[in-house]
Amino acid sequence: AAANKRAATAAANKKARQDKLDAEASADKKRDQSYEDELRSLEIQKQKLALAKEEARVKRENEFIDQELKHKAAQTDVVQSEADANRNMTEGGRDLMKSVGKAEENKSDSWFN
């Protein structure tokens, strides 16, 4: 009877130690899983921040491109205006020379007739 009682006590103690080890292992596993979850959450936040940063950079680049295109369009308008002004001056000078030539022709025709 005493041997059975000692065996039962030893078995109970062994089971208690095993239960304690299992509980500690379970707690460690839960801590590790929480830590892993935290790491994943931080990684996701980093990726979101990197994406937002990239989106902001692209938006700024698009704004710079738009400004550059507007600047180029303005330069093109200036060149076109200068070309129009030169053409108008040239055509005006040509018309003036034609008029002077015609007037000279008329003047010379009237002297001889």
Please provide a written account of the structure.
This protein is mainly alpha-helical. It has one domain. The longest helix has 111 residues. The relative contact order is 0.03. It holds the Pfam family DUF5384.
Note the gap between the termini: 164 Å
Coarse shape: rod-shaped
Alpha plus pi helix count: 1
State the order of secondary-structure elements, H for helix, E for strand: H
Proportion of residues in helical segments: over 70%
Mean pLDDT: 90
Sheet/helix structural class: mainly alpha
Task: Throw out a few tags for this protein.
single chain, 113 residues, mainly alpha, 1 helix, 98% helix, Uncharacterised_YfgI
Fold blueprint:
Layout: H1 2-112
Give me a quick take on this structure.
With 113 residues, the protein is mainly α.
